[in-house]
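Before going further, learn to read the protein records used in this course. Taken together, the tokens spell out the fold as the letters spell out the chain. A record is reproduced here so that you can trace the correspondence yourselves:

***
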Amino acid sequence: MAADDAARAPAWVEPMLAKADGGRLRSGPEWAYEYKLDGYRAAMRIAPDGTTVLTSRNNIDFTAEFAELDGVLAPALDGRAAYLDGEIVVYGEDGRIDFELMQERRGRWVRHQSGPKGREFADVPVRFLAFDLLRLGDRDLLATPYDERRALLASLPMPDPYRVSVVRAVTFAELAADRRTPADFLSHAASAGYEGVVAKLRSSAYVPGQRPDSWLKHPLIRTQEVIVCGWRPGQRSFTGTLGGLLLGAHDPETGALVYIGDVGTGFSQAARADLKARLEDMERRTHPFVTAPPREDTVRARWVEPRLVGEVVYRQFTRAGRVRHTAWRGLRADKDPADVIAPRAVPRESAAPPPEPPGKRITVQAGDRRLTLSNLDKILYPAAGFTKGEVINYYSRVAPVLLPHLAGRPVTFIRYPDGVDGQKWFGKNVPNGAPSWLRTARLPSTGSRGSGDTIDYPLLDDLPGLVWAANIAALELHVPQWTVADGTRNPPDRLVFDLDPGPGTSIVDCCRVAERLHDVLAADGLTPYAKTSGSKGMQLYCGIAAGDPAAPSAYAKRLAQRLAKETPETVTAVMAKAQRPGRVFIDWSQNNPAKTTVAPYSLRGRDHPTVSTPVTWAEVRACRHVSHLTFTADDVLDRVAEHGDLLTGLAEERAPLP
């Protein structure tokens, strides 16, 4: 960017920053709400002749790196200058903003700086999402109230919304008119994969370089900027590359550089190699901290000059001043080491923390039962900010279509009492403390060590049972392909094919296999139904009438082997991992009476509250991207309201196996 071109653009303004809201999302008619974005904060400064300058929050010139954004808005400005504040983001395959992809793109840009300037990355397109307007034409808008600035911003035409668009904003009054609350907006932000919500005073001016009370951020995940101060060589499978990083930040009280912990997860293979190469050129003999880190933390450490800034996700900042449960997110070229502050001052003397308050309990009416629920605010999906209360709400609302698929079927739980990032528990036996009214089925154990033993399975036939299960954090519900009556197992009434994508494939490839299976099953007189697994793959079901419990597995195995023989390059019927790369595994063994499959409409223990979702065959045939068949709890409730239960005919259209 030539100096005279940049001079014609509006002068750079140090950006206004949002202050943490202390965990309390503000509410009231004086507030508006925006999504908190996960990208690079940037200013888009446009000269009257259309010349565009992109600069970071520290006034680093981004124009060449994001050349595809140059001049996009010029046709909409009619020769006026403009200054937009916003965020540059990248979207992943699931249609959500993906900061890791942005980091990978950034790494490629750095490596190719010696190449032609303005090099495009067509495979990783970027988008500028504007959330404020600081100048339009000759008018300086810094002192103009937020509401007026937003109205002017929203009035600007967007010639190419794939490259430049405006972040959605909604006022408290608009939410109230839709019978919704700021908490509902936050919940939607979580399910849509945003980083959080920013509440902004509608009357507030834009205050450059300040972090006032008029912009308050409510993050759904905890992130921390860090200074890379050292690294450890990898061991075992990571031998020869980077194993982890040692992190620092400035004490907010003294400004001294202090050690705040390490990070060893979240790196891609490419990131490990790139970081190792960069850090080897920055090595120094001693650590850079004001006081030495603990010796146990510095075994095999190799120290570097504290020049690189990165970002980590973390779950806890301890009284000893350490970030815990960390994962690497990437380097932050837009941040300066001098600006990296520890979450709070490293304490010299610290009293014991106050005891955690007991979980709040409430009593609710579920059907004809009164249940006591606890810890409804406990976050079970940290990446999405999705709480146990929201889990219970989902299962309560989806119950009319879910319960028919659980009726009479022994349920196996997968419980996540500490959330999806914590330990999970598989449960077949009804746990201690279950209500006396809960229906159960005592059946012989089918496990290899269960000879002569019995299991008391829960039966979730009604709303109270379903709500009770959700309250004990039974996020996943798995059931067999048969029902039980009077303590006796009935013959199987469902045939299932579990399509599991191997490395290098996705649900898109599963859809192509599902289409082939559909035609074969229909030719055999069966009526196939499809649903996503809620994870990576999908399942096909048929209602069947089979007297022999072994018959469904035998039939499913024949079809799986047939498709694998016809197209061995894309399909396998063998479970061995060596056979899986580049292929879809047709798991026919789910028809074994001892096996279970995730129930329709069950949540999954993934990063986000995704759901095993029934889909139409039109959706299967049209699927060309992972995001086309990825559904969260909110999505499913909307689908049920529109379509009802897409598996309604499964129990009615039972046919004999060929």
Confidence is low (pLDDT under 50) at residues 1-6, 345-359. The CA atoms of residues 227 and 380 lie 30 Å apart. Residues 223-339 form a domain with the OB fold (Dihydrolipoamide Acetyltransferase, E2P) fold (CATH 2.40.50.140). The chain has four domains: 3-219, 223-339, 361-488, 491-656.
